[in-house]
Each structure stands twice: as structure tokens, then as C-alpha cells.
Amino acid sequence: MNEFLFFYHVLAVFCFILGALRLGKNALITIIAIQGVLANFFIFKQIKIFGLNVTATDVFAVGGILALNLLVEFFGKEIAKKAVWITFFTSIFCCVMGIFHILYVPSVYDINHQNYAAIFSFMPRVIISSLIVYFAVQRFDVFFYSFLRRKFKWKYPTILNVSSLMVSQLLDTILFSFIGLYGIVASLKDIIFMSLIIKFIIIVFSSPFIFVVSKLFRGRHRICRIKNLESEKQSFSKLKNGKYFENK
Prior knowledge:
This protein is mainly alpha-helical.
């Protein structure tokens, strides 16, 4: 049952991502941020899928990564970086507001306070763990990818990029699972294994997925690429002029 539901869930997320892309940059950023919030809420629900005891948030990992890849492809890396920060900011806001709400003394008629308290009591740990792991993995990825490029003398860029991504995601999954989920979930081993399988599949198939979507949205893709090139030229021009005046 859960296996079929998982695939339908992924399909539903894909449809909403494509709809957001159709609406534009702001809608795509919004759906990325919402998936980040949903992942933090539902990470405490444990399910059994393919014989493994995992959390119910792997779908949002799939959707978040693919939506970020689309954001990079259509609107550039700087917008994607901004989307990551917006996601963190939104998650922190929801966490802080949730803590305020559980501090209110419930009335005698309230029947949901304990449920909310159980969710939000662990959420600060999850969000702080996400921030710590994100910064650590980002630094490692830059170092490791640079090391691979020097080691192989700038050859095989695609293979090196995929290898770097896989190692970084391995580190990301293991660190977050131990820092954020240890003592909360039943089986860290199952969660790590399932997350890695999903992330590796995304890494392998993300390029074909981006290619197909760019063909479906050919007109928008062409316009966005032109705007990105113009923006990069303007940034380079400003940088060049700045260096020129420094030298003078």
C-alpha cells in the first residue's frame, strides 16, 4: 500500500512543481520553501516502505532537489541560493511561531495540545541540524570537487560532478540522520539507506528530467537563459569596472 502511495505522492509533487514553473520564478521558490517546511513537520512520522522503517519525508527530498535544479536551469544559481535561504528562514519562522503557540496554556476543551507539543518539541533540533549539516557539506563539496579536478587534471567533468554530488549527499545524509534524528526514530540504518537510494537516483536522472522539462517549456527556457546571460554580463562588467578603478 505505502509503495503505491509513495509513487502517486511523487507524481503529485512533480505536477505541482511543473505548475509552479509555469507560474514563474516566485512560485517555484515558494513551492521549494513549502516543501522544506512540510519535510520538517512530517519527518517525525515513521512508515514502512519496501521493507524499511523510514520517515515520510523522502518525497519532499525528491521534490525539493528537482525544483532547485529547475530553478538553477531556468533562473540561475544565485536565485537558487536565495531559495535555499528563504527555505531556512521560513522553516525557522514556523518553528518559532509553533513554540509560541505551544506555550499558550490550553483550555479545558482543548484536545490537540499534546500532539502539537510532541511535534514542535523536536523541531528546533531538526532545523539547527539542517543548518549545521548544510554549511558543513557545502564547504566539503567545494573542497572535494576542487581536489578531484586537480587529481584528474580537469578531465571527465560530468563524472567528477556526479561523484562529488554522491559523496556530498552521503555525508549530508549520515550527518543529519545522527545529529537530527538519533534517539527519535526507530531505525537510522533504514532511513540512511532509503534516503541515499533516492538521492542517488535523483542525481543520475536529474539531467534527463531537466532536459525534458526544458523542452516542454522551450519558450520560457529560452527567455530565461537569455536573461541569465545578460545578468551575468552585467555582473562581470561591474566587477571589471570595480577592479579597474582599484588599479587606478
